[in-house]
Amino acid sequence: MSIIVKNLTHIYNEGMPFASKxxxxxxxxxxxxxxxxxxGHTGSGKSTLIQHLNGILKPHAGKIYINDFDITDPxxxxxxxxxxxxxxxxxxxxxxxxxxxxxxxxxxxSNLGLEVxxxxxxxxxxMAAVGLDYEAFKDKSPFELSGGxxxxxAIAGVIAMNPEVLxxxxxxxxxDPGGRDEIFELIKKLHKEKNMTIIxxxxxxxxxxxxxxxxxxxxHGKIEFMGSPREVFNSNISRLKEIGLDIPQxxxxxxxxxxxxxxxxxxxxxxxxxxxEILRIMRGRKxx
Length: 288
Ligand SMILES: Nc1ncnc2c1ncn2[C@@H]1O[C@H](COP(=O)(O)OP(=O)(O)OP(=O)(O)O)[C@@H](O)[C@H]1O
Ligand SMILES: [Mg+2]
What we know:
The protein has 288 residues and is an alpha/beta fold. It has helices spanning 46-52, 78-84, 101-111, 116-129, 134-137, 147-159, 177-193, 205-211, 229-235, 237-242, 249-259, 271-287, and strands at residues 3-12, 20-30, 35-40, 61-66, 69-70, 85-88, 165-169, 197-201, 214-219, 222-227.
């Protein structure tokens, strides 16, 4: 599913003394099956943007087209869009409420008015997709689970709607490193195996450099950069720092190595690439 955002503006508390422009005339396009990392400092507008993409928030100006449907058109029935664009909000485990995991995951598909067999089949498939064994977990209370497992249940609930686009707002916030890796692995798998378009906001630059195909960098409600992680990170280090973002650790390392006189290529972004560069330079030095 392609998404086109045109001149989108959102103002909270418009007309009030404390009004704030959270999105300021932003435009971009996301292609079908892309994996988009949304990054930016706290308050830059990531969550506000995410909430526009399935119609939860309405823009003050601008348009959003999803597969040519203008979802800002007030006459459009948003139910169809919400089936196709699934959003996992920040700390989604707070929205778990049913007494069993099975019932919680079945909640969304049940609201679509599907047949019972179809609902059961979707619950099983989405539990398998997030790596939760159906028999072992179906009757457990969501509240018995670890943080990472609860988040898997919440993601399974959205996957059970069979969305073509999966949007996740800081899906690893508050998890320990193990839980964080598990969730990122899961999202990578969903992108690859189910061909879902993924839009993911995160403060983890290292993970975004590894996972995303496209990065959107937000700054005070505007798009500062958009491009591949290599284009965004490798060419704009000082600007990214200026707007309050970390840069991937690999780039910190290459900067330090350059300061020490190592002639590291400008386009390296992964640890393997740095390793190759260091070996190349050392081989060159041995020959001298
Ligand atoms: N419900 C709201 N009412 C008023 N202002 C809001 C509301 N939600 C967000 N804002 C303001 O809008 C701006 C954008 O906030 P948003 O939550 O979209 O940023 P964010 O990039 O998601 O930040 P974070 O990284 O902390 O999640 C901020 O200035 C914020 O204070
Ligand atoms: Mg946010």
